[in-house]
Design brief:
The protein is an alpha/beta fold. The chain has 11 helices and 9 strands. The protein starts with a strand and ends with a strand. The protein binds adenosine monophosphate.
Length: 280
Amino acid sequence: MLIFTKIHDLRAFLNTARNKGQSIGFVPTMGALHRGHISLIEQSKKKCDLTVCSVFVNPTQFNDKKDLERYPRTPQKDAEILENGGCNVLFLPSVAEIYPKADVVSFDFGNLDKVLEGKYREGHFNGVAQVVKRFFEIVGPDKAFFGSKDYQQVMIVKKLVKLMRSEIEIVPCPVLREPDGLAMSSRNTLLTDEERKTASVIPRLMQMASQIIPEKGINVAKSVVEQELAALQNVRLDYFEVCNVNTLELLEKYTGDEKAIALIALFIGKIRLIDNLEIN
Ligand code: AMP
C-alpha cells in the first residue's frame, strides 16, 4: 500500500493510474478504523481497480471542540488495518494541506440538513460537504463508498454531487454491527466498560421500535424509547425520529405506503452515538 500526505504526490500517482485506464474507488474516513470501514474498502475493491482511503479528522464538521479533541487518532494502526484489508492507497493529509485558506463554503441542502443531525449539530453537514467536495476534487474517484450508519450523511453527499454536477457514483454500504447489535463506530472505543454495556440498549430499542411502529404507530414507539432510556443512568436522548427514507421528512403517522426509517442519537456519558433502522 502506498501512503501519501501531499495532494501533489497523490494526484501524480492517480493521474498515471487513470491514464492506464484504471477505475478509482474512494473511501473517506476519520480513522480509528474498524471492520465497518474495512467493509467499505472491500466493496470498493470489488467494484474498482484501485482503492484510495483517506484518514482525516475533519475539524470543520465538529460543532463541539471537546468532541474534536477527544476523537480517537490511531494512524499507525489504521495503516496496518488498511494494508491487511488490501487497500492500495492511504491518503493521510494534514489540516493545512486540506485547508490552506480558512474559506467558509456554504451549501444549500434544503430540508436535508435542517433535521436530525443537522438540527442537533449546527454546521456539521456544511463541514462534511466542504471536506467531501475537497476530497472529491483531489482524488477524482469514479465511485465513493459511504456507510449507511450515517444515513443522513449519505443523502447529503448524494445531494452534494448533484450540486457539483459531478459524475461520481455514491455507493451506500450496509451497517456492520457488534455481536450485540451495536453499530460499529470509532466512538465506541471511548466508552467505559459500563457504558459499552449500556450501549447495547440502542440496537435493542431500535428492533423494538421497528416492531411497534407498524402495529401501534410512531407515537407509541417514541414513548417506549423515551421511557426505556429515562430509566437508565448516564443516558441522554437527542432524538428518536421516524422519517421518509428518500426525503428525511419527519413522519408523525406510519401508513406503510411510504418507506420509513427510524433514526436515533443519544449520549452515553460524554459519547454521542447514532443508529438507524429501516421499517418494513
Ligand atoms: P467515520 O470514520 O466514522 O467518518 O466513517 C467513515 C465511513 O465509514 C463513513 O462512510 C461511515 O458511514 C462508515 N462507517 C462507519 N461505521 C460503519 C459501520 N458500522 N458499518 C458500515 N460503515 C460504517
